[in-house]
Amino acid sequence: MSKTNAGNFFEDFTVGQVLEHATPRTVTEGDRALYGAIYPTRFSIPSSAAFAASVGLDPHPVEELIAFHVAFGKTVPDVSLNAVANLGYAELRFHRPVLPGDTLSTRSEVIGLKQNSNGKSGVVYVRSTATNQRGEVAIDWVRWVMVHKRDQSLPAPETVVPELAPAVEPADLVIPEGLDFTGYDVVAAGEPHRFDDYEVGEKIDHVDGVTLTDSEHQQATRLWQNTAKVHFNVEARPDGNRL
Amino acid sequence: MSKTNAGNFFEDFTVGQVLEHATPRTVTEGDRALYGAIYPTRFSIPSSAAFAASVGLDPHPVEELIAFHVAFGKTVPDVSLNAVANLGYAELRFHRPVLPGDTLSTRSEVIGLKQNSNGKSGVVYVRSTATNQRGEVAIDWVRWVMVHKRDQSLPAPETVVPELAPAVEPADLVIPEGLDFTGYDVVAAGEPHRFDDYEVGEKIDHVDGVTLTDSEHQQATRLWQNTAKVHFNVEARPDGNRL
Amino acid sequence: MSKTNAGNFFEDFTVGQVLEHATPRTVTEGDRALYGAIYPTRFSIPSSAAFAASVGLDPHPVEELIAFHVAFGKTVPDVSLNAVANLGYAELRFHRPVLPGDTLSTRSEVIGLKQNSNGKSGVVYVRSTATNQRGEVAIDWVRWVMVHKRDQSLPAPETVVPELAPAVEPADLVIPEGLDFTGYDVVAAGEPHRFDDYEVGEKIDHVDGVTLTDSEHQQATRLWQNTAKVHFNVEARPDGNRL
Known about the structure:
Three copies of one chain form a homotrimer. Chain A is α+β, with helices and mostly antiparallel strands. Chain A has a single domain, classed as Hotdog Thioesterase (Thiol Ester Dehydrase, Chain A, Roll). Chain A contains seven helices and six strands; from the N terminus they run ββααααββββααα. In chain A, strands 1, 2, 3, 4, 5 and 6 form a six-stranded antiparallel β-sheet that branches. In chain A, β5 and β6 (about 135-150) form a beta hairpin. In chain A, α1 (about 30-40) packs antiparallel against α6. The model of chain A is unreliable at about 235-243 (pLDDT under 50). Chains in contact: A-B, A-C, B-C. The interface of A and B includes residues 42 and 202 of A.
């Protein structure tokens, strides 16, 4: 039996299947620094422990996308090693702040399957849940991704397409415990505009373009333990079939 | 009103103006590691907590230039987003060690203005002060930078050129509290030469050249939250007018 | 006297000589994050503090190779600044886990010398020992490396080639204190194969190729304070004589 992990193909998934993803990962201050070196982030709460404490968040949580990248990376070896294309996300919610020292584990449930008409691949829908070392939910989300079939002669599974919310309702969003913006320092935050200043349809020209090199791309995916070959191996790209 | 931050132009500065820079930033062990990955530093005090403690510095301070880069980065969005050229620094002093967990904020006062004879730009002098989360001064310095005018038809402001010390007097340097070199381990420090071994005019050939790639340049400027476009966006460079 | 550190040449080494390497270095969570960004590591113990604690390792040790890279880097300025080629390692043992906050120092003893027949260089054998801030041995190993002579007219030293074990005996390996795999979570570890599943001669195709750029190479060597010029300076490479 080969010890090479070839990953799951479309026919390996069944609706209701639960995947316990391996390699729990502890988030640290090192992740905060590297995230800041790779992405040009300047939000006051994750940038400053003092600012975070002033709005009720102490100890100092890391940026939500650090936690998401870590939690998402866990799912790749089981869900999308044979992906053709990453298609979408829905119903993502951050349930509680993630602190340096927290360990995230992720599990996914297959909630939908739809084979493509060409018989070569299909769409897999998973709902993934990341929990911390106390078993509390940190993040959950739905993702759908197109995955190759290993054996194209196999029959298509029954099509199940989950009904997904077009948007997360404001009432369903989770406000971090203790968050209190009454003493919010607008000057330190560096953003003069508040909720009321924005209009539907307004366009904002974000002038601060950022150039990323291959090195930063690869460092990010390794840091998040995302094992999709296209991110790591330049030889995996010329086939033209992968993202 | 556009929400794009176009930054200040020469005519937006007035002598005596105080700029409270946004986005306080907490320094961490992650910064120490990344600084070491980008710059080839091997000073014993910031490299080793045990060495630092042996000379009276416990907890373990980060390298002074980490603190300076962080503190300086704060000033860019308000002072030099429209810079033509960075011209100089003076009177820089490190007032106390910066420790992992310390949060730095920076404010600047405009202390001089001098429009260029071509009427297209001018030199802005600022004195910047970085304080920690207890309001104690960590670093202060003067910087002058050439900044574009937005509207070249505006009249020149009164010229004010601050008188700056040609060098910081030894008596004005701040020795960190508790620093004690009586037990200094010369072998562990890795540098056999002491103050008395150097002569004015002596030349030293630093043979250890270092190549930096675009990736490291960009990671450094993002890490320090330096928002000058020339550092991030390769498309900002070909105009030839920017650093 | 020049203050440039030209490094030791072959004729500068004598059997029995002890080199106390400079610049002790404290390992941090920043090193763990950067190691993960540069190398695609996914071992559960260094990845997860919770997993490590579940097998008896608490606080959370860093990956053994982080400690080795740091400890090895210390030896370069004294041993291999003038290396022609890095030849081999033997008898390497990890004696105890290295934790964030531990400071490593390294000393080496010259245990062998053999001049090459061309008279231009020779092989230096050193046994290096890295200790933590309590003086406990963390890692030791033997390395041999070919080093240039400065003065080819000097006579060859007596040849001493140390007898090295072809492999570290299992009985000589050091099991970390407290390690207990009775509750080992195979699913979280992500590796279904155990010791009994492997056979001598078995071949495994590791399909996850990784591309490294110059930037990552240089960041790694700076992070580990490895001062060999070939790692830092592209101008040091075209001579074709160095690794």
